[in-house]
From TrEMBL:
NCBIfam families per record: fliE
Keywords from the UniProt entry: Bacterial flagellum, Cell projection, Cilium, Flagellum
Primary localization class, coarse: other
The protein's name in its UniProt record: Flagellar hook-basal body complex protein FliE
Domain of life: Bacteria
Subcellular location: Bacterial flagellum basal body
Similarity field: Belongs to the FliE family.
Species classification: Bacteria, Pseudomonadati, Pseudomonadota, Betaproteobacteria, Burkholderiales
Gene: fliE
InterPro entries xref list: FliE (IPR001624)
Molecular function GO terms recorded: cytoskeletal motor activity; structural molecule activity
A GO BP entry: bacterial-type flagellum-dependent cell motility
GO cellular component: bacterial-type flagellum basal body
Amino acid sequence: MNLTIKSPELIRAVVDLNPPLRKSQGSSETGFQDALVQALSSTSNLQKESGRLTTAFTLENPTVSLEQTMLAGVKSNVAFQATLQVRNRVVQAYTDVMNMQV
């Protein structure tokens, strides 16, 4: 069994499996700022939903279960922690850039 593959053939095979991503004609370009705003909005919405469910459960609303409330709280906490880590990394990167010698 001879399994030798020349490098151009290998590269061509890999490119055919994973074509490069191209911008579609109708899509708009999004940057880091847009992604950050969307993440903050999503985190805020999860926290509001968690607060709403917690209040409803505390007031013994029969349509809200403990499982629903706990799951919303965990989702909200994970989103907040992720947002906090991104903020910490951005602040650290900013500090590193400001401390660079020119």
